[in-house]
Design goal:
Helices cover 41% and strands 12% of the residues. The chain is an alpha/beta fold. An eight-stranded mixed beta sheet has the order 5-4-6-7-8-9-10-11, sandwiched between helices. Helix 18 packs antiparallel against helix 19. Keywords: Cell membrane, G-protein coupled receptor, Glycoprotein, Membrane, Receptor, Signal, Transducer, Transmembrane, Transmembrane helix.
Length: 770
């Protein structure tokens, strides 16, 4: 029909080959290279005589040959035609290798490069995210070549093959049972696989074989249940049916996608078909046979006049035939033949005419250096209607001019198989790993099959199907689902939060209390209880405690360079002065009683110089430690992004942890010495003795700082600073409360005990009245 239309159109066109008539002969290849060789030799020899180079009685002169869909057969034909320099056009474009050397330009291929089709099909899988697919190939050299080409290319793009099956071939009737067994195995493989997408690289006869698949499900050796499949058809395939298959169920192919050679719209072709009638005067030699096979009828024998049971009237309509058997529109391959015929006609016209002007054409046809047509592919969607007619809906295109974005497709225009309920099907070995998980390849299986494992702590997976989880930047941390990073909050101990405000308030309150106690002692500096406890040491101790309470403000607020340099050293020196004063008080009491013994040499050590020397020497050693610390390992502002996962902690880097614990260790040494001296002096007469209160204060001091070390090491962030502030406040408050509360009680509540008349007697809470 297609050749009849094209030759008729050319012969009616007075602008092409005037006074010449273009005709054609059709030879069947029988899908067999041997038969094709025979047909080619008949074409080049005298009609019906297989005698090479004997052409004397030929009634027709072949000027060009249009090949079929099989590339290997086309190459076999071309090898013979090359000898006689007869031009040939083929409807395939595989690499012709050693045959096409460039010296013979008579072999033109009316389809695009095969590599473009590979890229288009791969782009189709990547577009729909189909990574687990099946493939059917021909059981020949072309099939092996396709596997060798596609498997590495698809694997590089993370597409795996669930199975690769070879289409059964049929050559002799004795092979039918073997072919049937192969078909059953292929059906079981297709229907039992998890792959919902299946690419088929076959030829025009492949669909004839595949149409048997729905009827294999009833056989006893077939165990898989039928289901929906997305068939991806290569451009070499046409939806063809044999006569006995024209009314077969074709629903298995509903929703299939195919790449076809780009074709134009030819309204004249449909009108041509509608006007064809086997009874007309213009009927060719093929239409009567075609008509009888298509409509299942017989024409009355014109010789015998015998009428058939189902006679052909000639009024049957071609448009009533199922689309799977005959299409009223021009397919991609038919359009290639259409272009090939016109190319031959224009070449003949140019040869027969001295006027080589450009003739009117619908579009320009160009070939590349390999003799392949420079054009793209159309992506068609096969939609099955109720009368088993397929409608080819163009849903996309593969563009050869844009290799990076070769595929253009309209998802909304696609009609999927009824099995998928018009939802885009999935074709994956493993459903996508959700964000927050990563892929773990299953041992012994393709890389497309994997387990989804949660990300380890501290890592995230922002996208689906990530090969590995990633760590957040230092300034962010994973959310609960571990699928994105949250910016960390900058934190430090500041005044506006409850913890910082509470510590600041307690420090200020304790400072004011200490100042009031100091003022009270200054006011009553001439009273016996103040005089008896060494006023200078008392004032020094109170001032150092006042400064201890105030130094907590160096720890609150955003760390600065100055505050980082001062806070630990200031605290260490001031606290060493306070503890040294306590030690000096205790030593003074002990030495005073030892000096009262007859002949004691301690008298020369008594006096204010002893207490001052103790305080100065003990404080000087701590000052030396702090000076070395500042000189060699100065503290500086720093940020800690690792300790607390959700926070960026602004802190003071102490420079040297060893020096920090040296300062604390020295304070512990002074406190231990004070505790031991006070403990031994606790039984001295109460009129001179405050050792038992010092003992208790040192117990509080040591308890606080002994518990500080493990607590400090177990806390993180700003709470470490809070623990140190609390220890400073608690130990300072312990000294203030234990040592000075009894004296304040006497001064304020029992003033009668703080008089010179009470000097010879014993005062409560210790002390001497003189």
């Amino acid at each position: 029909m297609y050749l009849s239309f094209q030759c008729s159109e050319i012969n009616e066109n007075t602008q092409i080959l005037p006074n010449l008539t273009l005709g054609f002969n059709i030879y069947d290849s029988y899908n067999n290279a041997d038969r094709t060789h025979h047909a080619t030799m008949l074409l080049l020899s005298a009609q019906e005589r297989l005698v090479p180079n004997y052409v004397c009685d030929m009634q027709s002169n072949p000027v060009a040959v249009i090949g079929g869909l099989d590339s290997q057969i086309s190459l076999h034909v071309a090898a013979l035609l090359d000898i006689y320099k007869t031009p040939q056009s083929a409807n395939n474009c595989h690499s012709v290798g050693s045959f096409y050397t460039g010296s013979f330009r008579g072999f033109l291929q009316m389809v695009p490069q095969e590599a473009l089709q590979y890229r288009g099909i791969l782009s189709l899988f990547l577009h729909f995210r189909w990574t687990w697919i099946g493939m059917l190939i021909m059981d020949d050299e072309n099939g092996e070549k396709i596997v060798q080409t596609l498997v590495p290319q698809f694997s590089q793009n993370h597409v795996c093959f669930a199975f690769i099956e070879k289409l059964p071939t049929f050559k002799f009737i004795t092979d039918f049972s073997a072919m049937l067994q192969q078909g059953e195995n292929m059906y079981n493989q297709i229907m039992s696989s998890k792959a919902n997408a299946l690419v088929v690289y076959g030829d025009s006869y492949s669909l004839v074989l595949l149409r048997w698949l729905p009827y294999l499900s009833s056989m006893k050796n077939v165990s898989a249940e039928p289901r929906g499949i997305v068939w991806i058809m290569a451009a070499q395939m046409e939806f063809t049916s044999l006569v006995y298959q024209r009314n077969w169920d074709a629903s298995i192919f509903d929703g299939a996608l195919s790449l076809t050679i780009h074709s134009g719209d030819l309204p004249r072709f449909k009108a041509f078909l509608q006007g064809r009638n086997p009874s007309g005067t213009e009927a060719d030699g093929f239409i009567r046979d075609f008509w009888q096979q298509a409509f299942g009828c017989k024409f009355t024998d014109q010789v015998t006049g015998t009428e058939e049971e189902t006679p052909c009237t000639g009024d049957e309509k071609l448009e009533s035939l199922p689309g799977s058997f005959f299409e009223m529109s021009m397919t991609g391959h038919s359009y290639s033949v259409y272009n090939a015929v016109y190319a031959v006609a224009h070449a003949l016209h140019a040869m027969s005419s001295s006027n080589l002007k450009q003739r009117e054409r619908t579009h320009k046809v160009s070939f590349d250096q390999s003799g392949c047509l420079i054009t793209g592919f159309d992506v068609l969607n096969w939609v099955l209607s109720s009368n088993q007619t397929f409608h080819r809906v163009k849903v996309g295109r593969v563009d050869p001019q844009d290799p990076e974005q070769a595929l253009l497709i309209h998802d909304e225009a696609i009609t999927w198989h009824l099995w998928f309920n018009q939802v885009q099907p999935l074709s994956v070995c493993t459903v996508s790993c959700h964000p927050g998980t990563s892929k773990q390849v299953k041992e012994g299986e393709p890389f497309c099959c994997y387990n989804c494992i949660p990300c380890p702590e501290g890592k995230i997976a922002e996208h689906e199907d990530m090969d590995d989880c990633q760590k957040c930047e230092d300034k962010s941390y994973p959310n609960k689902d571990q699928d994105y990073c949250i910016p960390k909050t900058i934190t430090f101990l500041f005044y506006k939060e409850p913890l910082g405000l509470s510590l600041a308030f307690f420090g200020l309150f304790s400072s004011l209390t200490t100042a009031l106690v100091l003022g009270l002692f200054v006011k009553h500096h001439d009273t016996p209880i103040v005089i008896a406890n060494n006023r200078s040491l008392t004032y020094t101790l109170l001032i150092s405690l006042l400064l201890c309470f105030l130094c907590v403000f160096l720890f609150i607020g955003q760390p600065k360079k100055v505050t980082c340099l001062l806070r630990q050293t200031t605290f260490g020196i001031i606290f060493s002065v306070a503890v040294s004063c306590v030690l000096a008080k205790t030593m003074t009491v002990v030495l005073a009683f030892m000096a009262t013994k007859p002949g004691s040499r301690m008298r020369k050590w008594m006096g204010k110089r002893l207490a001052s020397s103790i305080v100065f020497s003990c404080s000087l050693l701590q000052t030396g430690i702090c000076t070395v610390w500042l000189a060699m390992y100065p503290s500086y502002p720093d940020v800690d992004v690792h300790t607390v996962p959700e926070e960026i902690v602004q802190e003071c880097n102490e420079g040297s942890v060893t020096m920090f614990y040296c300062v604390l260790g020295y304070l512990g040494f002074l406190a231990t010495a004070s505790f031991m001296v006070a403990f031994f002096a606790r039984k001295l007469p109460d009129s001179f003795n405050e050792a038992k209160f010092i003992t208790f204060s040192m117990l509080v001091f040591c308890s606080v700082w002994l518990s500080f070390v493990p607590t400090y090491l177990s806390t993180k962030g700003k709470h470490m600073v809070a623990v140190e502030i609390f220890s400073i406040l608690a130990s300072s408050a312990g000294l203030l409360g234990c040592i000075f509360s009894p004296k304040c009680y006497v001064i304020l509540i029992r003033p009668e005990l703080n008089s010179r008349e009470q000097q010879p007697g014993r005062l409560p809470f210790g002390g001497q009245g003189r």
